[in-house]
Please model this.
Amino acid sequence: MTALPWVDIVGYWIGIFLTICCLSFLYKDNPFYKLAEHLFIGVSVGYLIVLQYGDNIEPKVVGAVFRGEADGGWWVLRLVALVLVLMMFVKVVVPRWSWLGRYPLAFVVAFYAGLQINAVAQAELGAQIKFSAGNIDAVKVDLNTAPVDALIALPGSSGLVATKLVAERAQRPFVSVDDAVTRPSLTDLERADLAGARGNLIGLDAKAAVGPGQHDAFGIVSNLLLLAGLLSSLVYFYFSIAHRGVIGGVSRFGVWVLMIGFGASFGLTVQGRISLAIGRAYDVLGRTVDPADADRIHGPVVAVVSIALIAAGIALWERRARRDAGDQAGSRGQS
Amino acid sequence: MTRALLLAVLALVTVGSAAAQPTPSAPTPVVPLPPDLRPPSRAPDPGPPPVAPPLAGVTDLDVRVPDNDNGRHFAIRFTRAADVGEDVVTAVFRRRWGQVAATAVFPTMLGPADATPRTWSVEFAGPTPPPLGALAAGDEVGPWQVAEVLAGGETTLTDEVPPGQYEYVVVELRRGPGDTIVAASAGAVIGPRATEASWFNTDRTGYLGIVLLIAGFIGWYVWETRKGKALYVRRLPGVDAIEDSIGRSTEMGRPVLYVTGLEEIQNIQTIASLLILGHVAEKTAEYDTDLTVANYYPLTMVVAEEVVRQGYANAGRIDAHRPERCLFITAEQFAFAAGVSGIILRDRPATNIYFGSFFGESLLLAETGFTTGAVQIAGTAELTQLPFFITACDYTLIGEELYAASAYLTREPTLLANLKAADAFKILAMLFIVIGVALATAGVFDLGPWAFR
Amino acid sequence: MKKTVPLFIGIAFGCFAVAEFYIPHHHVGALSNEFRQWAAILAASAFILGGVNILQVTWPQIRRREPDWRYKVVLLVSAAIMLLVGLPWHKLGSPAKTPTVERAATADAELAARGKAAITVVVDDDVTFMIAGKSAAGTGRPVVTEVDPGEVEVKLSRRVAGYRPLTAKVTVAAGERATVHGDPPMIWGRDGRVFVWIYDHIFSPANATMFALLAFFVASAAFRAFRARNVEAALLLAAAIFMMLGRAPLGRAISDVLPDVAQWLLDVPSNGGRRAIMMGAAIGAIATGLRVILGIERSHLGSDS
Amino acid sequence: MSAEHWSAKLQRFDRRWIFLVMAVAVVVPLFVPLGLPARPDPMTKAAFNAVEALPSCGPDDVPPKCARVFVSIDLDPASTPEIEPFYRAVVLHLKRKNAKLVFATTWYQAPPLVDRYLRETIEAAIAPAGTDGYDGAADRPYRKGIDYVNLGFRDGKGAIIQAFGSDLRGAFDHRADDGTRLDRIAMLDGVNKLSDFDLIVLVSAGNPGAKEYVQYVGTRNKLPMIAACTAVSTTDLAPYYQTGQLIGLVAGMAGSAGYETLVGKPGAGTAGADVLNIGNLVVIAAIVFGNVVFFAGRRYQRRGRTS
Model:
């Protein structure tokens, strides 16, 4: 692996300096953050226009109309798109003709609204109604007769475990869940997995049994709770009646379910956000770079130097700001 | 040797197949050919040495247009012989029906039922020898084209073809060493079949039902409002706060910031946000407060500017409209968040309104807004960001409340009718679910999968 | 004319977009794809309007020396640089440079005896070359590699992105010596040296750090807002703590029940609420979409002034 | 001035102290590792099983003997910490099975990242024989056009994903990222749309990503899809996993750490997961402390009124 050129090493230094500038926003809004912010916005705008031209305008317009690569659509149709674009430009440039701009906007807004109606009707509404209107009875998987993919879905199970179970039951049907879990052909790791997943609330014992038609009591309760939560939350979104009396009670229960859901989602996100900060620390400490390069970048040293520089800069800026404020107060006399 | 063998394949077609084979779909009349077109019967040329014992061919060949097809597919089904070997593949050939071959006299596979099997001849197969080795989809064999070579023992195939009429021949081929073909069965023939594009996808009736039901309810309630019936809707604190906080911003002489979310016009939440922006602009025009609109996509900025202009025009203050206050920041998530944080900290707006779809940066905007003491009203249907808005903002419109905000702000009868329609459908949906659960649990009938395939 | 025609255009395209979903016919599908291309073109070309808007907003602030005008200069300059660097300038200059190959006049008897050929590669020290699958780092000095006679492919490339790799096909007979010179040229445009450098060292660190700020804001929001003022807030708080303990590996260390509780919280109440919001939002979205298509709500069609 | 009651002082607690504590909580554990085991959750195991179920074949075999997998890399530099560890683990898992890989992305920030990933993990072996700390099967460098193809980036959000579902070649204008025509690449024969792949792996940090794939193509043609997402999108995608529209879901850094343990090659995910614990504790402490301040403040106001 050849050595990293100097230009890139300086690049990493600039990257670390910008990282500290952005972090200084936590202290307060300061010149270093403003610099990083405007630099970041400028670069991103340039990046976007280059990409949009390369990916949308060039192939779809220049390519389609001038090089005749219009896939499917005849290039005449593509000219209409050009006309719509011009009308949109006229709206911004020539205020007097700005009503022309309404044609492309009307097309875009209505067309996308139409597409979204069906996409939402199918994936959000139809699919969710279909799955909510399902059977709430939770029947335990019968280890002796269930197909392979039902066995895979069991807690602690996997593709390999499932095939082994099928082979085992062919020789000798299972007598109990314990019997199935301790069969010889399972490896120690698989046995540990299965053992770890036992439990009659949501564990293996709740989901699986020997013999047909056994019900998972906690599963049924959970399904009922889910249905109750769903219906009461829907009542919360009901606009036509004031939330008082019985309706008020149900919608209050609905809000509680929503709040538990939001709390769970918040708790999940905390973990995600922290891992971002960890990732950032990794980059600055040079752990996501080839070790040979990391030695030449000296990430931690540059980070400390940047922190010192920016801290001093902010201190200076604050003293000057206080002095200016002081002068203004002084010049205006004791206000 | 194998070259001749394959050429023989398409000739060794049981000529009588058309008569014997019952065409399950509409019985296409076999058009007897006028005499002059029938090929001159010639003694079969000496031809290839004796062929290996023929394989058992496929039976019950059926080609039909699949349901809800877009007019470019055929569903081909056949049954293979029971004892067919592992090394036997099924080759499906197709040919456009009715296309008279340029040079050769038009021979038909469906000629009269003379007993002697037709042997392959140059006029019939056309000048170019077929590629014997790797027979792959799309190869030409005389006038015939290989639709697919099924090596995995499949017995069904969906063939994609340009619209038109086609004939199909399905043949079993035994592959010898080095991908050559050592034996071939008699070909089962079927045709002509025409592609049909269906005009309605029956699988999606459930979804069409939803859309028509909601449209019907909207129409019904709009008609109700035309009859002057007052519609009651419960209070929505988030929306009441909008008008109060705009008033508060006017008193404090600080601007109102409106962020239209991080999605293009492609997303319905952005469209809803822009509709609300129009009504908010009307209010800021009345109260004569500065309105700053931060947009993520340029196209959204263009529509936002048009909507704000309309708001100011409705309030009769078109002169006060400043188009440069509709900003396109940038279309990069965190550069946008940095830019809007900058606006929040430096312009110090008294009201921050975040309507539309937001992602990770929602918490950054909300926390920055909190430090400046602004009243923050958020509204989105993004499930992942609602917890942040609920914790960090003063008021939050959850999911459907965002779409209802326009109606609440304007209290316009037609928009209130929309709310009533949504409520009516909600009752229907709840009933559907409860009935569905009851039926499914009782094991009587699965309502869900029946309605929504 | 100014308002009614766009309204009808909206209704027409809106209804087509709704109907298209239910009609499998391939012509309808092709037409719908074509309209999608139009919308994509409109969205993309609007970016130019975006650039114009940024200029319209920042240029007056610079001219009038408003506070922070220096930063607006930084914004415009960096955007301009990124745009310029994004254009493929290298296509304008001299045609693509190919590596030069020189053959030694006399065959090398000793090599011929062993039935081998030799290829010497002379490249700078930051160029790596690959001969017949084996790659090595250039050292500025000639490097000799023995190869089997016949056609040999020599690939020269630079480790850092932004340079176009060069390949030379050299046919050498037994005993023949060939020297290959080459210098992978720097390219401009989207995969260009400067564009990728700016992306790697300015764009992505700033982007990653702004995202990482959320780790701090999550803590301050947790401190400020998760206060058990009422039952709802208490439930929000309890669910968040359970989820945090349950999902983190530490939670499993505390007790095996926690991950199951966290998973149950995710599967039952959270899903129930989630589905309700999804369905409610979907109903609202469809109603809004229909309002726009049927022209009940027209604020996006602007005024007649 | 009487000593200010401690609870009143607490009310004016500056939240920037919390930032400092979080900064320490993130940086310090990086130098003093904890080494807690990462136990994969059921959804991550389901994703692992989906890849494990793919047929494995020899280095020179061709489909249909080899599995063909479509990998959509939709992330930006900011979200790599959570998802990149999963990407590296799943690519090692796929390469062990010599699956043919087709890469694409719908995020415009992703192309430079995808090129770096291709250089580091595809064209080079991730875990050649004898890598320490890894006893699984070794993987080999992949050859462009034979073992993998990079289709590059296409903008258009849901609309372009819908195009992938119906006409993948047309959506990429019949060209790979480096310009070679798709119909000249043998491994893509017979592949015209997403349903022609054996598995679809969605490395998705947000929008467009796994949700759009489910919305626009998943439900329509019943595709086998597994997805990795940031922890925040877990609750967004969990319903799709429950309904089977996604057959596996690797959520956040904890998910990536779990997948790494399943593949048998601990990496950045596992190391990061350690640090997660401390960070989580800080947030929980902040919540508890916030409540202490709240209840103390309320008691102080009530005491203020009565006395």
Q: What stands out?
A: Chain B touches chain D at residues 136-137, 151-152, 160, 263-264, 266, 332-334, 357, 359-360, 382-384 (CB under 8 Å). The CA atoms of residues 4 and 188 of chain B lie 20 Å apart. Residues 413-441 of chain B form the longest helix (29 residues). The longest strand of chain B covers residues 165-175.
